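F.,

This is the one I mentioned.
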């Protein structure tokens, strides 16, 4: 696995993890009991905590990528054998 392949795999894992983490803990103004500002969308989050979610996403992505790398490096899952070609 080249460095480019690793970067692309990490970017894909990061984005998928980010989209899974983003909706966690989101509350709208109505749910939080706060007054909405004029022109504010009803679905806008009160405190999205993007920085915290990016750190959590980075940590989870590192763990998932580590598992992906170990499986690929040590050839723990032989794809050819899975499809009967090996």
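My design for it:
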């Amino acid at each position: 696995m080249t460095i480019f392949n690793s970067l692309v795999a990490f970017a894909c894992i990061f984005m998928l993890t980010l989209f899974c983490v983003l909706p966690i803990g989101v509350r709208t103004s109505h749910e939080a009991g706060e007054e909405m500002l004029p022109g504010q969308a009803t679905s806008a989050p009160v405190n999205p905590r993007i920085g915290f979610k990016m750190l959590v996403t980075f940590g989870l992505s590192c763990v998932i990528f580590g598992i992906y790398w170990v499986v690929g490096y040590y050839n723990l899952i032989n794809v050819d054998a899975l499809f009967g070609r090996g």
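The chain has a mean pLDDT of 93.

Talk soon.
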